[in-house]
C-alpha cells in the first residue's frame, strides 16, 4: 500500500467531498478518484458511498480512517525522530570517564550538552586511560575524558580546560593559615601523590613541575585516586598537590591553598575520540565542548 493512498483517503474522508479534497491536495478529481478506487480494490472493501452532496464513510471506512490517521502519525514521528537523530539530537552516546574531572568540569560540560540535546541518552563508563583507548577502538564508547593524553595516529583529542593546581594541607598544618603558598613548599613536607596508572599521569605532571622549580619532593605516599589522597592529608600523612576540581571534596580538616609563584602549575583536561567517527551525536558533543571552552576563555 502506497502512503499516498492514506494521504488521499484521509483528505476525502475529512472533506466528505472529492472536489474539495482534490483542491486541498492540489490535484485534479479524476486521479484522486482512481487512487481511492485502487485503495478499495487492494483492501477488497468499500470505504466510501457516493451521495448527491459528496461521499459518506462506510463503517469499514470509519475504522480505516482511524487506523490511517494512526499510521500517518507514526510515519510523521519516525521521520521527525530520524531527522533529529541525523542532527545529533536523538540517540545515545557512551562516554569513558576517569579521575578528578568528574568532580566538576565534566558534569558542567555534559549539562551544557544535555541542555541543547535533551533527547540524547548519555551513558557514562568509569575507565582508565588505557581502557578508554581500547574501548574507543572497539567502538564501545564514542569519547573519553582524561588528562595528559599522548597523541595517537587513529585518535583526535580536544582540550577542554586547564585547571590550576592547589596545595591541600591539614587545617592544623602551619601553612593552613596562609592565603597562598610558594610551590617550593612542596619539597619541605611529606607529599601524597595520586593517581597511579598509565603514563603519563598526574604524578608525572607534579614531578615535571618540581623539576621546573628545581626542587626534589619528599614523597610519602602514592595512591590510586584523589579521594584517598585527600583522606590521607586529612589524616595528617602529609600535603598534596591537587587539581582545582578536587576542591569540591571538602572533608573536615582540609584547607586548599593557591600557588603564588607558579603560573604553569596547571593540569589539562581533554577528550579523545576516533578520527573516523563522523556521527552527528559526537559532532553535537564537540560543539558543546567548544561552547564550554569559550565559557572558560579558551579558543
Name the poorly predicted regions: none
Computed Rg: 32 Å
N→C terminal distance: 54 Å
| Topology as a string of helices (H) and strands (E) | HHHEEHEHEHEEEHEHEEEH
Give the amount of beta strand, in percent: 15-25%
Shape: rod-shaped
CATH superfamily membership of the largest domain: Periplasmic binding protein-like II
Q: In CATH terms, what is the architecture of the largest domain?
A: 3-Layer(aba) Sandwich
* Class based on secondary structure composition and strand pairing: alpha/beta
Biggest sheet, open or closed, and with what strands and sense?
A: 9 strands, mixed
Q: What number of structural domains do the residues give?
A: 3
Total count of strands: 11
Helix content: 40-55%
Task: Tell me about this structure.
The protein is an alpha/beta fold and 299 residues long. It folds into three domains: 84 residues, Orthogonal Bundle (Arc Repressor Mutant, subunit A); 98 residues, Periplasmic binding protein-like II (D-Maltodextrin-Binding Protein, domain 2), CATH 3.40.190.10; 105 residues, Periplasmic binding protein-like II (D-Maltodextrin-Binding Protein, domain 2). It has nine helices and eleven strands. The strands form two sheets. Strands 3, 4, 5, 6, 7, 8, 9, 10 and 11 form a nine-stranded mixed sheet that branches. The chain is rod-shaped and about 100 Å long. The two termini are 54 Å apart.
Amino acid at each position: 500500500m502506497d502512503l499516498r493512498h492514506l494521504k488521499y483517503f484521509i483528505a476525502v474522508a475529512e472533506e466528505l467531498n472529492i472536489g474539495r479534497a482534490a483542491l486541498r491536495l492540489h490535484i485534479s478529481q479524476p486521479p484522486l478518484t482512481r487512487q481511492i478506487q485502487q485503495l478499495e480494490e487492494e483492501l477488497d472493501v468499500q470505504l466510501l458511498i457516493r451521495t448527491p452532496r459528496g461521499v459518506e464513510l462506510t463503517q469499514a471506512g470509519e475504522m480505516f480512517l482511524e487506523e490511517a490517521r494512526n499510521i500517518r502519525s507514526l510515519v510523521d514521528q519516525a521521520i521527525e525522530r530520524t531527522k533529529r537523530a541525523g542532527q545529533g539530537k536523538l540517540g545515545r552516546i557512551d562516554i569513558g570517564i576517569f579521575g578528578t574531572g568528574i568532580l566538576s568540569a565534566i558534569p558542567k560540560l555534559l549539562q551544557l550538552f544535555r541542555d541543547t540535546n535533551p533527547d540524547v541518552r548519555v551513558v557514562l563508563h568509569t575507565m582508565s586511560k588505557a581502557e578508554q583507548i581500547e574501548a574507543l577502538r572497539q567502538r564501545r564508547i564514542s569519547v573519553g575524558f582524561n588528562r595528559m593524553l599522548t597523541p595517537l595516529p587513529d585518535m583526535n583529542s580536544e582540550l577542554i580546560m586547564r585547571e590550576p593546581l592547589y596545595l591541600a594541607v591539614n587545617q592544623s598544618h602551619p601553612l593552613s593559615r596562609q592565603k597562598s603558598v610558594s610551590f617550593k613548599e612542596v619539597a619541605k613536607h611529606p607529599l601524597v601523590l595520586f593517581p597511579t596508572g598509565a603514563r603519563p599521569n598526574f604524578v608525572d605532571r607534579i614531578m615535571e613541575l618540581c623539576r621546573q622549580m628545581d626542587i626534589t619532593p619528599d614523597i610519602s605516599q602514592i595512591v590510586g585516586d584523589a579521594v584517598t589522597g585527600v583522606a590521607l592529608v586529612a589524616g595528617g600523612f602529609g600535603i598534596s598537590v591537587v587539581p582545582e576540581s578536587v576542591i569540591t571534596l571538602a572533608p573536615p580538616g582540609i584547607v586548599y591553598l593557591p600557588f603564588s609563584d607558579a603560573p604553569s602549575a596547571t593540569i589539562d583536561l581533554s577528550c579523545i575520540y576516533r578520527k573516523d567517527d563522523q556521527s552527528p551525536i559526537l559532532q553535537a558533543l564537540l560543539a558543546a565542548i567548544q561552547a564550554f571552552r569559550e565559557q572558560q576563555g579558551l579558543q
